[in-house]
From TrEMBL:
PANTHER family: ABC TRANSPORTER ATP-BINDING PROTEIN, TAURINE IMPORT ATP-BINDING PROTEIN-RELATED. It comes from Tistrella arctica. Pfam families: ABC_tran. Residues 1-40 are annotated as: Disordered. This is ABC transporter ATP-binding protein. Residues 22-37 have a biased composition (Low complexity).
Length: 296
């Protein structure tokens, strides 16, 4: 990859407004606490269910899902294909309406959270516009919100630095590697300085080496900003590498089978994957998945 290897190179750059240098634990109790629920949860769901109505028969995508995600958590959702991971992310983002149960996002309804731009969403495919440069892609949500030009430019500069793309603002997406395109889409998702970043298998299509770099970069970004992250993956190693907590889901209808805490130090290194603690957590995730017969 021609681009910067990790986000550590941007360690001296300013993080998003309102989050500068604030330790994660302090964010929960600090001014941002007002933006979380009364119980302090970034995302809280009770008995959440979703049934898709289709032409032939209803599809039970989620059933009785209870989750509590704390501010500053990095939570991975892992489970077999079709178990409802994307559906759960889309419910948090107000892109789908649950058919049962309740959910709050930063203490608000998902609809209010969406209007308040409380979250950013990163899709599996970067979905960048090929006729816009990287900076103009990242700027698009700010243009649509009619933010003044000088403010837009300052925000885009800051976000591109945060994802290690400072030198690539004037390139077109097709001039970037797949990993750099995903960095650009993460920068775009951060344009309104959200408190919550939702990511749906953002690195699923990348080769292993690029994925390792992006995992390191995302870990650095999470540490720098104090963001709450909800991350969907099929990879046990990626889930353990990135997360403070891993939620294992069952085959459809998606239920929560296990919640596994990962107490590795906040700063993750590739070498940690060889450690006994990493292997222990990975084995717990593997056992959780096996409970749902997900390897059938
Ligand atoms: N709009 C829809 N209408 C009907 N059924 C849907 C719709 N979206 C998803 N489904 C079904 O709901 C179930 C859960 O889908 P979802 O996309 O949430 O799974 P997933 O865990 O993200 O899978 P993958 O790992 O393959 O991305 C699947 O059976 C899927 O076919
Ligand atoms: Mg999916």
């Amino acid at each position: 990859m021609a681009g910067p290897m990790t986000l550590d190179t941007t360690g001296n750059k300013a993080p998003p407004a309102g989050q500068a240098g604030t330790p994660m634990a302090a964010r929960a109790a600090g001014p941002d606490a007002a933006r979380t629920g009364s119980d302090g949860a970034a995302v809280s769901a009770r008995r959440l269910s979703l049934v898709y109505q289709t032409a032939d028969q209803p599809v039970h995508a989620l059933q009785d899902v209870d989750i509590d995600i704390r501010p500053g958590d990095f939570v991975s959702l892992i489970g077999p294909s079709g178990c409802g991971k994307t559906t759960l992310l889309r419910v948090i983002a107000d892109l789908e309406q649950p058919t049962g149960g309740s959910i709050t996002v930063a203490g608000r309804t998902p609809d209010e959270a969406r209007r308040d731009r409380a979250y950013g969403y990163v899709f599996q495919a970067p979905a960048l516009m090929p006729w816009r440069t990287v900076e103009r892609n990242v700027m698009l949500p700010l243009e649509l919100a009619r933010r003044p030009k000088a403010e837009r430019q300052a925000i885009v500069r800051e976000k591109l630095a945060l994802v290690g793309l400072d030198g690539f603002a004037r390139k077109y997406p097709w001039q970037l590697s797949g990993g750099m395109q995903q960095r650009a889409s993460i920068a775009r998702a951060l344009s309104f300085a959200p408190e919550l970043l939702l990511m749906d298998e953002p690195f699923g299509a990348l080769d292993e080496i690029t994925r390792d770099h992006l995992n390191l970069a995302l870990n650095a970004l999470w540490r720098q900003t104090g963001l709450t992250c909800v991350f969907v993956t099929h990879s046990i190693a990626e889930a353990v590498f990135l997360s403070t907590r891993i939620i294992v889901m069952s085959p459809r209808p998606g239920k929560i089978l296990e919640e596994i805490t990962c107490d590795l130090p906040a700063e993750r290194t590739l070498e940690m994957r060889e450690s006994a603690e990493f292997q222990r957590v990975a084995a717990l995730v593997r056992a959780g998945l096996a409970k749902g017969h997900s390897y059938d």
